[in-house]
Amino acid sequence: MSTLRTATLDSSRADKHYTSQYLAILLIAAALLGLLLLAPMDAAGQLVTSTVVLVIISLCSREATHTQRYQSLFKTFALVLGVALTFRYLLWRGIYTLTATDFLSLVAVWLLFAAEIYAGITSVLGCIVNAFPLTRPPLLLSEMEVDRVPTVDVMIPSYNESQDILEITIRAAKLLDYPKDKVSIHLLDDGGTDQKINQADKAGAARAIARRESLQRLCQRLGATYHTREKNLNAKAGNVNSAIENTHGELIVILDADHVPTSDFLARTVPWMIKRKKVFLVQTPHFMANPDPVERNYFSAFTRMPSENDMFYGTIQKGLDYWSSSFFCGSAALMRREHLALVGGISGESITEDAETALDLHKMGYESVYVDRPMVSGLAPETFDAFIQQRMRWAQGMTQILLLKKPYKAEGLKWYQRVGYMSSIMFWLFPFARIVFLLMPLAYLVFGLQVYHASLLEILAFTLPHVIATYMLSTMLFGRTRWPLVSELYEILQCAFTLNALIKVFLKPRAPSFVVTPKGESLDKAFVSPLSKVFYWLIAVLTFATLAGVYKYINQPLTRELTIVVMLWNTFNLLLLLSVMGVLLERKQLRNQSRLPATDNVVIETKEGHAWVGQLIDLSVGGARLRLKGDGIEIPSNVVLTSWCEAIKSTVNLNVQILNFDTESKELRVKFTPVTEQEHADVVAYSLCDSRRWQSFQRRRTRPISYWYGVKHVLKVGIKPTFIHLSVSLQHGFQKLKTYWQVAKEK
Amino acid sequence: MYKTLFLLCLSFFSFGISAESHTYRLTNFYGGDGVVRMQGKSNSFDIAIPLTSIHSVTSSSVTLEVTSSQALIKRRSQLFVRFNNATIGQIAFDPTRPSLTSRIVIPAALWRAGFNRLTLAVSQHYAEQCVDGNAPELWSEVNVYNSSLSVDTKLGVDEVTLAHLAGFFNPGIGGQRNVNVFTAADTQRQLQEKTLPLVAQGLALRNQYQPLSIRHNVLPDGNVLPEIQSAKETFWNETQVDNYEHSAWYLKGADTDEVHVVVGTVEELALILSDDVINEIDGAYVKVERSSRFMANNKTLVAPAYRLIVSGNTHDEVYQAAKALAVMDDVLSPVSSIRVLSQTQVQAERLQRMRVLTPGEQYSFEALGVASERFTDEGDFSKRITFRLPADFYVPENASVALLLDFSYGAGTGPGSIMNISVNDELVHGLYFGDQNGEAFRDYQLRIPARFFKGGINNVDISATMRAPLAGVPCDDVFGSHLVFQVNNSSSITLPKAGHVAVQPDLGLFSETGYPFARYASAPKGSIFIPSNEYLDSALTLSGKLAQVAQSPLLNLAIIDALSSKNEGALIVLGSPATLDDIEQDSFAAAVGNVKRWPYRLQNELHNQVRELTGDESYRQMRVTGATVQQSDLGEQAILLAQRHPNSHASDTMFIIAAQTPEYLFARVNDLISLSMWGQLAGDFFVWNDGLKPQLVMQVNEKFELGEANSYWLTLRLWLSNNPWYWLVSFLLLVLLVSLLIYLLLKRRNQQIEDSW
């Protein structure tokens, strides 16, 4: 035994020795590389070298996306090449191009350079974080010793969500594949607190009492424990902490009200807690069962393109996991009570209590685990308004963490954990840079400020390769989970609103308060988002800048090269802005639950004993669409759908009502009509509790596309909505005029 | 194109000095097109005609060939001819006689030394009233090529002084275009290396842009008195012998109205100098005198001649005297001789920088010698600011030159009133005069990319067009006499800091600046190699031309007669095919010897035009891949080749100028230094046969950078820019090493994580 320990110790020492040696050589090589990047060269020479480097990055990226032995090496080589090009570009910018003729130009020059430095730093941090995404093996509870299985409290905090949403979540929680004596379900209701019941507003108080009573009845019916508290202190964090005080499970699962777990959630997460006692968090992806407004309004391609979440949960969290810095995302996570107790429960200093709690525990040396399997399906905000509200909260919360917790120098964090946190936080400062990138062409085209002091050849030699390399790296790292230009669209959509929110945080870091994101709204008619005005202004301003650019091109021959470059830049911005018009057209959505693709085999059976075999096309908790096989089908209005339910490992027989049958395509649309508690439970189990379905759906839509296809797609879907906006605005104006005329006439 | 035409025209401008009548084409003085068209109600153009200070005009006339529109009406349409602002003639346009030739006498009293202005102005109308000033039928043309100027001049020097030197050697009418230089036979080798080139340069500099052909002559060992023509006497008496010795007997019939130069120590020149002069020489000595006349029987046997003496007791003193001659302002020496006691700040580096702006500095227009200018009335106006940058002016791609302009325009400008600014004929900025109340600008800033500027001469043109406002009433024109545009010489130009590097070989740069013989950061030794004395005339003429283009004496330029591997610096090799056989030319794309290697265009990707001529800035490589080796003569043509010096340790440029014989070479060198031909120098392979047009201009040798980098940073920049592959390979290797190490560390961490599962 002692020999073995000595051998292990020797091996560990040898490892450390080699690591130190590698690090020393790495530092020297990096310093030499830094000197080389500083070396001056004329633009023509640089153009030649940059072109060669881009070709090599392209080849390495291609190799890095194929599964092969040296995949990671190619990826690392491409990343270092790309990062080096970015450094060279920023050095060149800093040394040679920051000249200005007047104070205003100087301000503009430095603003742009600061935005570029920000973009460069986030890009480099992103490369470090995502260089080696960790792929963990699946661990199952069945492989663990039974007596080591811990007790679990499933907590569902709620504030104003509807009972329907909560019922589905509680039912799904009840279906968790875990020893029944070791799991308890808790509904944490902040909408029925004593404070709410006793509020001065009588109608509000009555609503709170009714909510408390109905939820208590729901919990009683479904076998869950209802919790509420005296006051609504510290929002969600306070709600959870209050419940923690009144529960005793060793592990705690936190699920948002709309987050429906699949049955294997605990079976696949708890083993990581059993294996390592230092693990305080097992986080899983948030799988969104409905498209967010961008996906719905803009692309109408929810099932065909990667969701916004997929980039974070499919790539970034895995990268963070590698660097031991994957963090708590507020829901769909398993936490250890013992560790939470050390930091006084869920932290509440910022409005992103989740990341803050993870940071506090990481600082204490505890570990987090990320299990990359979608086992919780939630609802994305339906309207653009709600979407912006949610993003503003995230941006403000992460900025609060930056200002209040200072993760870049937090004691207890390893350097790579600091990098991980800073990468996650720095991203949310994008509105500053995005606004600068959007408006800076104006400074030159309209106000004549010399913001970019470089010739066309230099732009071709330094700027363009840097931009192309950044795109190449982004495609290599996130190509499957983020399509080209989608990030830009999301940033443009959010920047105007989140910038304001961020400035408020910088001015008063403790001021922001938690606002619950509205979810589960249904849109009964299409309308133009009330947040559109700012984009109209931006489009008007950028169009003016384009016209100013044309004028400048004609009248100032000396600066034509630069004018062309800035106009291209401005046109790119303008096209992106025109493209986001599509998002601001809120499309009608009558269906309460989004139907997701499914391929299960099913049997449709009548009371008379006639049966047809078929296959699901899509499925939701409300109903399904399927295609039947065979000829001469005549189906009565009420039938039974029979299928294998993986979640409960048994066959389910669900009463369904036929909504429509197309005899040509043999497509059948049915609505679930559960009556008994068991039937309700079966519908939830069948439609929402099979993680394999989410995984397959996710895999289906995470696929890379070419850059040009992405650009084409963005341009294609962006043009028509612009005209619709114009038409709606004209109609609106005409209506106003008409009303004004009528009023005047009446007077 | 205009530049070429201008130089071509000026090439015809060769003046004599005698009192005879001379006729010149007006294009000799005018840089524009051969035909000048004047449009609109009124228009005019000026022709500047230079005259030396030592000549006076006895009579002169101008003959004009004019064509006018048939639409012009009589009496109200006229051509006014003014000379130095005095109207000397009025030519009425007659629609029945649209073409006419008219001779106008220029009163001699109107001429003055320096530049004289001939103004041709028109007043044109197609109706008595309601004339549209922009009507297309309002035009007339003056054919300046066919028009001519006839001038009779008279030399007006009574007592010659050194101040008159600037009159003898002058670019104006009457200026000297040839000069004979005399040295003693046995000391020629000692003087030819440094002193003679300097004398040649000093004289050529006085001629400014006009070529000066220099011939070297050896003073005979002794004089032989002419035969006595008189029947009364059989021998020359002592006085006569003495007179003869002090006359210019050695000129052998040369034009005695020209100045010739004698160079040498007092001992060497004792044979021809008078005792008084010999006694005066006590150190470095410069004197100009008129030699005595030698007469016999009332007949002049040796005419008096103007003689410039550059002398001293030792060769060093002669060199000092030559230096003084090269830098002196003649006007400050209204005496016949000077003795140079000492000179300070006459170093090669310093002198070469004198006429060149220093990178990194700011210069007001006033400092550049530009006066404030005020333009009034309607019309087009232009102000040119000319300055020289170091020939090897090298700046990064993004460097810029800042122009801070002080200018203003007055109230009441009409549509079409604008200002354009061009740099080296490239339009860089325009401004519309849109304010009815006029505007005044101070420090109006323009940042112009430094790549618009080049080593050598640069021009910034500020052009304004002033138009009167529209009256808005038919037939009621607003006169433009109130229009004012003013450019102040408080405007300034700020140059970026620059390195000193030039791409070689480049005959264009050589012709414009004298580079690499005239540099900015340093003044390394430059040499002109002559295989024998027969080539000395060509060498001296070339050295004079180099000083002209450098606008400064090149103190480190030497004429050598032996080549060795130790020869450093730029080198011009003069010779014939026979003498050039000794030169190592294996590495050259084109070689001249008894056997010649020609890179014929059909064997190579060559072009008969080069970038400077065509304006092509694509830097397309003109590659040499083949050559034809042949045995042939050069005939009457000459070849100028430039390439990297094959033997020099440090990189430098070697020029070879070859013709079949020394006589042909001298003739071709004289053609080469003419304004038209010198302005057409370009590429690195130049062949010519006369003074009008080159036969072939090509770029055949590989280019290289010739730098005087004064910082490691610039050296590194240049090296890397020329060798980006080295940077790329080092970069890739280092990135590979870094990547490999990162990869190993990442794998190791991954292994540790997996072990923890």
From TrEMBL, chain B:
What name goes with this protein? Cyclic di-GMP-binding protein
Q: Where is the signal peptide?
A: 1-19
The Swiss-Prot or TrEMBL record describes its family as follows:
Belongs to the AcsB/BcsB family.
InterPro entries for this protein = Cell_synth_B, Cell_synthase_bac
Keywords associated with the record: c-di-GMP, Cell inner membrane, Cell membrane, Cellulose biosynthesis, Membrane, Signal, Transmembrane, Transmembrane helix
- Which domain of life does this protein belong to? Bacteria
The annotated pathway is: Glycan metabolism; bacterial cellulose biosynthesis
* Protein purpose: Binds the cellulose synthase activator, bis-(3'-5') cyclic diguanylic acid (c-di-GMP).
The record lists the membrane-crossing segments as 725-746
Pfam families from the UniProt entry: BcsB
* Predominant location: membrane
Q: Where in the cell is it found?
A: Cell inner membrane
Q: How does it assemble?
A: Tightly associated with the cellulose synthase catalytic subunit.
Organism in which the protein naturally occurs: Alteromonas profundi
Q: Name one GO biological process term.
A: cellulose biosynthetic process
Where, if anywhere, are coiled coils annotated? none
Cellular component per GO?
plasma membrane
Its membrane topology is listed as: Single-pass membrane protein
